Amino acid sequence: MTQPAQSSSGSDQQSAYVSAGVDIEAGDRAVSLMKGFVKRTERSEVIGGIGGFAGLFDASKIARYQHPVLATSTDGVGTKVAIAQALDKHDTIGFDLMGMLVDDLVVCGAEPLWVTDYIACGKVVPERIAAIVKGIADACVVAGCALLGGETAEHPGLLGPDEYDVAGATTGVLEKDNILGPERVRAGDVAIAMASSGLHSNGYSLVRKVLLTDAGWALDRDVAELGRTLGEELLEPTKVYALDALALIEAYEVHAMSHITGGGLANNLARVLPDGITVRIDRASWQPPAVFDLVREVGSISQPDIEATLNQGVGMIALLPADQADAALRLLNQRGVRSWICGEAVAGDGTVEMVGRHG
Known about the structure:
CATH topology of the largest domain: Phosphoribosyl-aminoimidazole Synthetase, Chain A, domain 2
Strand order of the largest sheet: 10-12-7-13-11-14
Largest sheet: 6 strands, mixed
Number of helices: 13
CATH superfamily of the largest domain: PurM-like C-terminal domain
């Protein structure tokens, strides 16, 4: 997002740069187009605007904490960007980036404060860059954090003219005494699942191989099981849970949360379990959306293999006392997050057991 540096050597040097494939004027235009989107994400702590060398955030908010702890996360979107490029639709991929960033923060209880982005492309097309940033900014609004800065880098010869990759980093804050994690989890806790919006942005190397490469399906193919085209399904934006998860943490005694990303449900949930606790997940408590069965059936993939790769329709899991589960479900569902009890914590060895069959 930071605008490219202007050469001090005059127009000849700029022309030489353009001849090498880097268009400074296009970068400037991209910054101009995105300014309005970024403005919508500003929090009261943001100082200045975009276009400088660094983003500034008033840290006095952090000083109000008794024992502030900063949390940080960095991630990218992965090969889902290939779907956006193939469909020439770039204004939703920002939700995928933000989902990977801020929802990794909230599982420890942190409030996301700001995000910075990095877009590498083969050629700066201002409208395309602005569309990408619009998606990031829209998702920042949903997550309640500021888009504080970033960089757009033009890499001719390394990336094709229509190729790009997107990554970012985020910072949040929480009280030290309120950090969620394995040491809080107890036998008798229930696991509440929060529905995903689909594949989110993990496992796309497998999905693309199975459906596009091996099966030879086109992105504009109408798929009856999905009720829309394959491309529309694969580009469905990642759900951003940040404010909903923070509302749950504020209202109830959440012990731990797990963001279900690459590696599937069991592997990610095990990351927040202590050695003496096992969580038993009942597959019969939900039916994964059709896209998951489609990938499994077309690719002849085993159930354990698909579960170790894709989220199977669950984007986030919270562990909390059983007597608070019904109220927690009401809160989440009132906020538009479809949720259900999917399992329970029992004495065990720090693993996750998947039992039963999907309904």
